[in-house]
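hiii so um. not sure if this is the right channel but i have a protein structure encoded as tokens and i wanna go backwards to a sequence. like what aa goes where. can anyone help
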């Protein structure tokens, strides 16, 4: 329902029209007559107090008085004839029946006389006021008003009025009132609402100045103006709000500038959420850099910056986008540690406001120098000593021939490095922590050496397997040492260009090198080899989960296809990682989808299931379950603390990839606890795959190449 706004002119027009209707229609046919006095009609109704009320009838000249509601008795008429009587409606008249008094008795109307009370607003005084100040609303019939409504439907009920009469309402402007017209309402279910023609101007604060400007973040700012006591919140650039002030009066506010305030105009909000702002921007102070010391500076060491307002700095960035650690900061001095990877560039200071300040010149960097190399004639695998300055910054030494190695020991004045096999005559290059390179003035002469040079090797070597290494001078070897200082004890053929050796079963899993010792006690190493306890895939057609982006890794479940340095063979693998509690799908397919069961058929005793796994952290509870839901039955196999036949021990980390072999007869019905095993894998129309269940544990496992293999 929209509010009904009425004016006096409209109301009078309505009353006039209604009067005509009543004169024609409102006859009380059932009224009694007394000695010929008869009331036929009266009007208008509704009527205004002070207006004329007209009665039509017969022998009305005998009427001595008219009694309106609440015993308002009128005996002075404007006119009176036998057929018509008129009177002025007294101010105290209310709605009710009308009584005509005659010498012989009274005649009471059947119809009600209703009184219209037009609410009007004639003025608002004063027209401009502060929140909390008293205003007066003048008009007519304001005694009927139940609500005064300010802009945006801010309502003050009659209990909040200071005073209320028919002609005036006095009240205080609400603290959150806004400039706009004022509306009064009679508060009825179908309310009559009257809006003022003029607006009430609600006073807003005005900011005329602020000081100081520029201002430091965290410093005190003074704002001056008028009506500032109305401000509830000051907003700085970056939408940084301050609602607690050091002091506040109508003409002045003192407050602390937020640390992360930004350059912008100052805004202020009042209780009504109306916002005022300054015309000029507040500018924030930024630091200045006058000196950097030492310069050049050494990566990894401290540098001192002097200047002004340096205590405002929140972070410092050196060349190469390397953030330094701030050791201390004061108004005029800042000390920070230069990252080892810093490159030659300017310094940038960052502030909480988002501003940055940069040095006008780059910060020079200390670089190592080479004073001498000893010896200059050397065999590979011998130690080379380099003397100079700031050599502790060196992380790599590059030799001619493309070989390189990390120093075995470094100090500021001396560096020791083992010359790798394959090094050729020529200069050496020192590579620092920030990638800077320093070339020696002297050249290195490589003496002939009786050490093997490995040119051929397997990328992956399985513990217990025979591997072949090829190269030069292979017949000079006396010892072949695997990671964890495991000396090989089993060999095959050995020639000047080839050696066959069995990888020890206990070799450390992962990337490692083989060390070779010659008859003369010289040593050399192989290139990196991945020692993994996995069986090679015999028949790719019998793999039913390979995680390589083929149909064989179409699945649903938690497993993720991943390819990174943990890869077994350079291809993708399945990553199972999460904190699991109870049943968790890992990977599944069904309906014989890429399942090679037809190749197995009833020959289940001739095959095993294998999968390659790398357990990165212990699985302390629950188990990993594999399922073959065939047309015969639903068969399960599990590994883990809760698996059938388990002693409850956790699944330990494998320290690399290993191959797990499972006999098909190990799959049992009744969730792995039964006695029946598969006899025919030709048809697997239901789920096959893997899940976690029966416990809660962190699971961090890599898996690949789930397959059938024929027994040898």
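sure thing!! here u go:
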């Amino acid at each position: 329902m929209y509010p009904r706004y009425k004016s006096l002119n409209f109301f009078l027009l309505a009353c006039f029209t209604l009067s005509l209707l009543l004169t024609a229609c409102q006859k009380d046919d059932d009224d009694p007559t007394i000695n010929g006095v008869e009331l036929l009609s009266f009007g208008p109704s509704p009527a205004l107090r002070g207006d004329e009320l007209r009665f039509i009838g017969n022998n009305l000249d005998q009427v001595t008085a008219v009694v309106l509601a609440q015993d308002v008795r009128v005996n002075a008429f404007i006119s009176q004839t036998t057929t018509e009587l008129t009177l002025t409606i007294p101010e105290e008249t209310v709605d009710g029946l009308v009584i005509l008094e005659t010498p012989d008795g009274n005649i009471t109307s059947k119809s009600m006389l209703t009184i219209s009370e037009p609410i009007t607003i004639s003025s608002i005084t004063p027209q401009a006021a502060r929140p909390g100040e008293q205003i007066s609303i003048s008009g007519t019939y304001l005694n009927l008003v139940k609500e005064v409504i300010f802009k945006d439907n801010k309502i003050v009920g009659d209990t909040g009025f200071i005073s209320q009469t028919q002609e005036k309402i006095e009240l205080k402007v609400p603290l959150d009132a806004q400039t706009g017209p004022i509306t009064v309402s009679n508060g009825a279910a179908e309310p009559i609402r009257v809006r003022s023609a003029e607006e009430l101007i609600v006073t807003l604060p005005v900011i005329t100045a602020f000081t100081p400007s520029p201002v430091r973040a965290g410093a005190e700012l003074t704002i001056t103006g008028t009506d500032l006591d109305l401000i509830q919140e000051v907003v700085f650039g970056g939408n940084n709000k301050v609602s607690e002030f050091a002091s506040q009066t109508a003409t002045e506010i003192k407050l602390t500038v937020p640390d992360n305030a930004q350059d912008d105009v100052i805004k202020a909000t009042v209780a009504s959420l109306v916002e005022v702002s300054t015309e000029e921007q507040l500018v924030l102070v930024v630091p200045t850099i006058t000196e950097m010391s030492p310069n050049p500076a050494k990566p990894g060491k401290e540098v001192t910056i002097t200047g002004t307002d340096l205590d405002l700095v929140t972070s410092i960035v050196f060349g190469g986008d390397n953030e330094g650690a701030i050791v201390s900061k004061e108004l005029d001095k800042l000390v920070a540690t230069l990252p080892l990877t810093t490159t030659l560039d300017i310094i940038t200071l960052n502030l909480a406001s988002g501003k940055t300040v940069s040095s006008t010149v780059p910060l020079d960097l200390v670089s190592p120098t080479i004073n001498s190399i000893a010896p200059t004639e050397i065999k590979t695998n011998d130690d080379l000593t380099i003397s100079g300055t700031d050599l502790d910054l060196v992380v790599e030494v590059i030799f001619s021939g493309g070989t390189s190695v990390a120093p075995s020991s470094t100090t500021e004045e001396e560096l020791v490095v083992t010359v790798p096999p394959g090094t050729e005559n020529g200069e050496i290059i020192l590579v620092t922590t920030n990638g800077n390179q320093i070339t020696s003035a002297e050249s290195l002469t490589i003496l002939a050496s009786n050490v093997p040079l490995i040119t051929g090797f397997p990328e992956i070597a399985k513990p217990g397997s025979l591997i072949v290494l090829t190269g030069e001078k292979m017949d000079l070897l006396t010892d072949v040492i695997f990671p964890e200082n495991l000396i090989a004890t089993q060999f095959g053929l050995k020639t000047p260009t080839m050696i066959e050796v069995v990888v020890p079963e206990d070799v450390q899993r992962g990337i490692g090198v083989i060390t070779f010792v010659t008859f003369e006690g010289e040593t050399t190493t192989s290139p990196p080899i991945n020692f993994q306890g996995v069986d090679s895939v015999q028949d790719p057609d019998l793999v039913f989960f390979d995680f390589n982006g083929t149909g064989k890794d179409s699945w649903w479940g938690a497993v993720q296809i991943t390819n990174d340095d943990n890869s077994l063979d350079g291809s993708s693998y399945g990553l199972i990682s999460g904190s699991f509690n109870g049943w968790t799908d890992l990977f599944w397919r069904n309906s014989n989808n890429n399942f090679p069961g037809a190749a197995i058929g009833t020959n289940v005793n001739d095959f095993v299931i294998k999968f390659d796994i790398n357990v990165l952290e212990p699985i302390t509870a629950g188990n990993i379950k594999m399922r073959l839901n065939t047309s015969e039955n639903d068969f399960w196999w599990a590994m883990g603390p809760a698996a059938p036949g388990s002693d409850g021990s956790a699944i330990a980390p494998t320290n690399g990839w290993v191959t797990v072999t499972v006999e098909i007869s190990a799959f049992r019905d009744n969730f792995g606890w039964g006695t029946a095993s598969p006899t025919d894998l030709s048809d697997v129309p239901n789920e096959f795959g893997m899940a976690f269940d029966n416990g809660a544990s962190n699971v961090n496992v890599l898996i690949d190449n789930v397959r059938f293999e024929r027994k040898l």
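oh and Helices lie at 8-25.
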